[in-house]
Amino acid sequence: MPPSTPRLVTHSGTFHLDETFAYAVLRLALSLREVGRDHELVRTRDEAEIARADLAWDVGAAYEPAAGRFDHHQRGAPVREDGTPFSSAGLVWRHYGEAAVRSVSGLPDTAQFDAQVGAVIDRELVRRIDETDNGVGSPGDALGLAAIVEDFNPAWSAPAVGDRTAEDAAFLQAADLVQASLKRRIDAVRARLAAEAAVLDAHARSTDPRVLELNQKMPWEGAVFAHALPVLYAVYPVSSGNWMVEAMPPEPGSFAQRLPLPEAWAGLRDAELAMASGVPDAVFAHSRRFVGAARSRKGALLMARRAIEIGRRPASI
Q: What's the pLDDT band for 110 if we cut at 50, 70, 90?
């Protein structure tokens, strides 16, 4: 192993999501790929071994970033602005998170979102790891990443208990899973932020602020909610060649719509729908009235406008 190879240290024995996640972050941020080739990983509680570390986390009873120390078990350990205690994951993310985000390549025009991606992941994921590890907030469940990482530890009755080689191998397996999940999350958040920017731009250019005109399918509802846009329908193309007309829900997670497609269109297709809607290339309207389609952009826009016109008419007395 080259003499310049960094020595990374965390505690031995049972491992949890916080130190596993911290290791995944460091591997991404420092471009580390394989133990024994480009870095050394030591899982120990021996103080002399910890003192020799270039980076140590979740062990060592010190938070000294300049010295590469990221523990949170000592008195006076740092907390977030609202008093939530950091775990080793939060402390490592605090200093290496943005570098980890940058290491996960996105499209050339999405690098502008890296700082935002880091902040979102801290808020939505890392903070939750901090809470779970420190026993604050709501507990995790069997489907959560913390529980899945716990399952990598040898069972109490397994022959591997106390076998340092086997336990270290299990830790590396868990870290591989966490790192893959983190990379996916970075990509997903970056895409979400890029979509939000695209939706805002598209809305500014749309002819009618109630009809969001998109040039491709993308997540759009979140941006509409976040920026209180008056959107009733989004229009966008799909791989079949059709153009969709999708109704906006009244609140996140709702199966209702701010303005459903007209009841007279529900469940109709092709010629029947074209006659009922007055849109010559209308393809279908779902029976639940949350989505419809036409064969062209022009047809989809016409469907949306007709739906608004019909939906806004005063009820007959």
A: low
Give per-residue pLDDT as tens, 62-97: 999 999 999 999 999 999 999 999 999 999 999 999
**pLDDT tens, residue by residue, 142-197:** 889 999 999 999 998 998 888 999 999 999 999 999 999 999 999 999 999 999 99
For a pLDDT cut of 90, what percent of the chain falls above it? 89
* Residues in CB range of 140: below 8 A, 6 or more apart: 132, 146, 147
Give the global pTM.
Answer: 0.84
Q: How far apart are CA 208 and CA 231, in angstroms?
A: 9
The β-bridge partners of 63 are 70
3-state secondary structure the chain: CCCCCCEEEECCCCCCHHHHHHHHHHHHHCCCCCECCCEEEEECCCHHHHHCCCEEECCCCCEEHHHCEECCCCCCCCECCCCCECCHHHHHHHHHHHHHHHHCCCCHHHHHHHHHHHHHHHHHHHHHHHHHHHCCCCCCCCCCHHHHHHCCCCCCCCCCCCCHHHHHHHHHHHHHHHHHHHHHHHHHHHHHHHHHHHHHHHHHHCCCCCEEECCCCCCCHHHHHHCCCCCCEEEEECCCCCEEEEECCCCCCCCCCCCCCCHHHCCCEHHHHHHHHCCCCEEEECCCCCEEEECCHHHHHHHHHHHHHHHCCCCCC
Distance (Å, whole) CA 120 – CA 126: 9
CA distance 122 to 21: 12
